[in-house]
Amino acid sequence: MAYDFITIGGTTRDISFFTDQGIIIKNHKDILHQEVLAFESGAKIKVDHFYYSYGGGAANAAVCLANFDLKTACLAPVGDDENGSLIVENLRRRGVDVRLMEKIKKVESGSSFILISPGGERIIFQQRGANAYFSLNQARLALIKQAKNIYVASLSGDWLVNLQKIFLVAGQNGQKIFWNPGTTQLLSGLNKIAPFMKKTTVFP
Question: What single string gives the DSSP state of each residue in 71-115?
Fold first, then answer.
């Protein structure tokens, strides 16, 4: 087979902001929001520094696997924009095969704005962008057969259909699946994800 791993999922271009202007407010009235990081309404907030980075489950995993000298390709979407080109180039520089990447026309790439307070608390503002338009047609499913192992990260859009396709192909070809489901998958409930968990080789 052509690859040790193919990673499937999302990609993002991230901006992280560091500031000491926020305050933590205890919120005992809402169990789902017990601590709130707050800023004065209408204020101009000082940012100590910020930096650009790259993220997304498929992209992060691909880079980590490539660092171990495993032949790795990333099968993930980017938008038809500058950030999409930067995401692809970053993966290429880090030794990831990018020939399987999909460019979604007239759509922005996925991005995240990460607010970080001095205590390390983070709030992530996420735009799924091109990740929400990702789909697996027959041509892309054929590409998956080229890997010994498949790493599946968080999926956006019609994730259940795509996940079913991935597991079907892997089952037919005897490939191992490493699955790290995202929040959307986990919140869908055990009844939906349990059938996939049974067929997963490594589940975090």
Answer: -EEEE-EEESSHHHHHHHHHHHHTT-B-TT-EEETT-PPPEEEEE
